[in-house]
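Inverse folding, one chain.
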């Protein structure tokens, strides 16, 4: 068991909160301080583009840890005061406070990418304030323009379509969410947006913002909407971290236990962290809810010197246009895709479609559209990297 006396967790989102809880679960009895840039109690982010945005829940409904829970965990809170520097053995906050500790966990997440010349009146979606501001703007709107066809943009577009707005989605690539799905399944995802009521423009090159409600495309066409949202991914929130010897090229480079390379006594989890991936041979960020949860458990165990949990099958999901999209495993490892269930890959009905991703003859991932009962049945096959014959026998 570790003899550390004080751990500071920098970042009060999912990764930070789960690290705090896992430290206590793993038996850590020392002091824990939680630093958060936002003034609110720690909250969950997936509802920002869904339930909170549509009004199905209130800000209180997305709180991860309230005052009583934090008190029960004996956590010292520093909310609304972001970190500005990490020194050896101490973190410095924006109000001049310096917190000394034995160990630090960086969980500052990511910030939305912006386009060149993006006006202040154009919406982004990352924080509670962003969601409430967008919700207010959509209440009186008749139209919405979304720049970016990833999950955030599509989830917002889905909710706007349900409210009767005219929705246009601009995607610069030939298919939306290519990084998550690849080309073949990306086509199915694009059909879901278009058939769900969104005007999906693929290969759309935005050249400039005329103002906060109008954009100009490469062909000279101008599109105007009451509300414009840019959702083109996020960048690690690392403007505050200047530490010699730490690689922050695309997130903080860590080993496979979350230890920050070049900074003894420092770990990183969640969207800000680029963990070593022996299967791909490098350091990569995984911006999924379940990834942050698993990394927090591994880091907490590493800090206290306990056995890490057994790895689980990576999982992601999204609710949009009346369907639940689910993914199990590592789609980026696949070199071929095959239809396991349904007709979506051949141009038929999207609902009930399950696509399998294979690396050679081994199943490495599945993605399902409105096919939850099937996706769960493939979990064990993804976990063990089942061969094609066994996978197709499930049909």
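Residues assigned per position:
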């Amino acid at each position: 068991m570790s003899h550390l006396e004080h751990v500071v967790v920098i970042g009060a989102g999912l990764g930070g909160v789960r690290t705090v809880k896992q430290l206590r679960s793993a038996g850590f009895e020392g002091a824990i301080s939680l630093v958060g840039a936002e003034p609110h109690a720690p909250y969950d982010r997936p509802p920002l583009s869904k339930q909170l945005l549509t009004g199905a829940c209130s800000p209180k409904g997305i709180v991860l840890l309230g005052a009583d829970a934090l008190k029960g965990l004996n956590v010292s809170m520093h909310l609304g005061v972001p970190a500005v520097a990490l020194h050896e053995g101490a973190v410095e906050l924006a109000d001049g406070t310096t917190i000394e500790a034995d160990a630090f966990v960086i969980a500052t997440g990511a910030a939305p990418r912006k386009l060149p010349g993006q006006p202040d009146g154009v919406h982004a979606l990352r924080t509670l304030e962003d969601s409430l501001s967008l919700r207010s703007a959509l209440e009186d709107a008749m139209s919405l323009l979304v720049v970016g066809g990833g999950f955030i943009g599509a989830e917002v577009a889905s909710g706007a379509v349900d409210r009767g707005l005219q929705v246009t989605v601009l995607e610069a690539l030939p298919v939306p969410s290519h990084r998550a799905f690849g080309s073949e399944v990306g086509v199915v995802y694009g059909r879901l947006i278009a058939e769900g009521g969104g005007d999906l423009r693929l290969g759309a090159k935005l050249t400039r913002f005329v103002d906060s409600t109008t954009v100009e495309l490469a062909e000279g066409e101008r599109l105007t909407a009451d509300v414009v949202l840019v959702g083109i991914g996020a960048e690690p929130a690392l403007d505050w971290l200047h530490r010699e010897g730490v690689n922050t090229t695309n997130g903080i480079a860590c080993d496979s236990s979350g230890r920050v390379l070049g900074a003894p006594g420092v770990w990183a989890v969640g969207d800000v962290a680029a963990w070593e991936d022996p299967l791909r041979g490098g350091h990569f960020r995984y911006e999924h809810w379940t990834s942050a949860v698993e990394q927090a458990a591994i880091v907490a165990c590493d800090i206290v010197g306990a056995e890490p949990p057994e790895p689980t099958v990576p999982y992601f999901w999204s609710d949009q246009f009346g369907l639940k999209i689910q993914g199990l495993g590592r789609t980026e490892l696949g070199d071929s895709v095959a239809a396991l269930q349904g007709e979506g890959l051949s141009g038929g009905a999207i609902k009930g479609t399950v696509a399998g991703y294979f690396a050679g003859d081994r199943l490495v991932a599945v993605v399902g559209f409105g096919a939850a009962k099937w996706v769960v049945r493939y979990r064990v096959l993804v976990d063990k990297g089942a061969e094609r014959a066994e996978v197709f026998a499930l049909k």
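The mean pLDDT is 95. The chain has three domains: 6-111+234-304, 114-230, 322-393.
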